[in-house]
Specification:
Blueprint (H helix, E strand, L loop, with lengths): L14 H15 L5 E5 L11 E7 L17 E7 L2 E7 L10 H13 L4 E10 L9 E9 L20 H13 L4 E8 L8 H8 L5 E3 L3 H9 L3 E11 L10 H10 L1 H14 L3
Helix pairs in contact: 1-2, 2-5, 3-7
The protein binds hypoxanthine.
The site of hypoxanthine has 13 residues, from β5, β8 and β9.
């Protein structure tokens, strides 16, 4: 498995392809909103809550690449939620599937070209904290890059508001409290995967004040921040990370627990979308 990264490439590099993809999305769906949601593994049930749906398969959008991971359907849905036109991307690419960073963030560039200003990203993650058991939803307030693609220096904790919007985080927090949804805040540790971590790695991540670990999302957060989108990332805690539980960890467990929390996540996402002013 090879993951070739070049963080220095320009976001406008694929402008022609970005324009072609966004034109098809806008022409086919008539999307007029400014808010998008990217769904993580097993959270596809969220689209059931959307009315007047227009759906496009990724294979119908020029230059879009279909995900290969189970639980990611590769569909884009546009429709109405709480009187707002929203766009939902069900399925994302991971670097462990062998994709370059440019490929992984291509959909973010297309979303921006489609008029997106607010981007809510969801993922599933393993918990590094006993107090955040499976079923907890965690608002990401900071991130740490443990992929060591740029060298062997310890990562910095990044909490910059351009990557983690305090405004959207505060809306999410109030919606969760109002609906008695267990919510936590914390720092997401990015790893490349595809293997789950060892308990020693988890211990190491904890020493940097990491709260949850996952194999996705950081490329999208970085790109969204650079493009000036307002970003909120929610991790659904699907399991305790290695070493925090006796049970061995499997992708099936992750998908099953994600499925069990879909209702909660739908309620939270709907409330957040309702609360977004612009
Ligand atoms: N580790 C890495 N990625 C994950 C995990 C985990 O424990 N759970 C869900 N995605």
């Amino acid at each position: 498995m090879q993951a070739v990264v070049n963080w220095r490439q320009r976001p406008d590099k694929d402008m022609e392809k970005i324009k072609q993809a966004s034109k098809v999305i806008l022409d086919q769906t008539g999307f007029k909103g400014n808010t998008a949601v990217i769904l993580g593994s097993g959270l596809g049930g969220f689209t059931d809550a959307i009315k007047d749906k227009r759906t496009l398969k990724y294979s119908e959008i020029p230059h879009y690449v279909e995900p290969t991971v189970e639980g990611h359907s590769g569909k884009l849905t546009v429709g109405n939620l709480n009187d707002k036109d929203i766009l939902v991307a069900n399925g994302r690419l991971h670097m462990y599937e062998g994709h370059s960073k440019d490929r992984v963030v291509f959909p973010i560039r297309v979303l921006r070209e489609c008029g997106i200003e607010n981007l809510i990203i969801t993922n599933s993650a393993g918990s590094l904290r006993k107090e955040n058991p499976p079923g907890t939803i965690m608002i990401i307030e900071g991130h740490l890059d443990f992929t060591f693609q740029d060298g062997f220096n310890d990562p910095d904790l990044i909490t910059d508001r351009k990557f983690h919007s305090p405004e959207l985080s505060s809306i999410a927090n109030s919606v969760a409290l109002r609906n008695s949804i267990a919510i936590a805040k914390g720092n997401y540790c990015w790893v490349l995967g595809p293997a789950y971590e060892t308990s020693l790695e988890i211990k190491y991540f904890r020493s940097f004040n990491g709260s949850a670990v996952g194999m996705s999302t950081l490329p999208e957060i970085r790109e969204g921040g650079v493009l000036g989108l307002k970003l909120l990332t929610l991790s659904l805690i699907t399991n305790f990370a290695a070493g925090l539980s006796e049970q061995p960890l499997t992708h099936e467990e992750v998908l099953e627990n994600a499925g069990n929390s879909t209702d909660k996540m739908i309620k939270l996402l709907s409330g957040i979308i309702e609360g977004i002013k612009k």
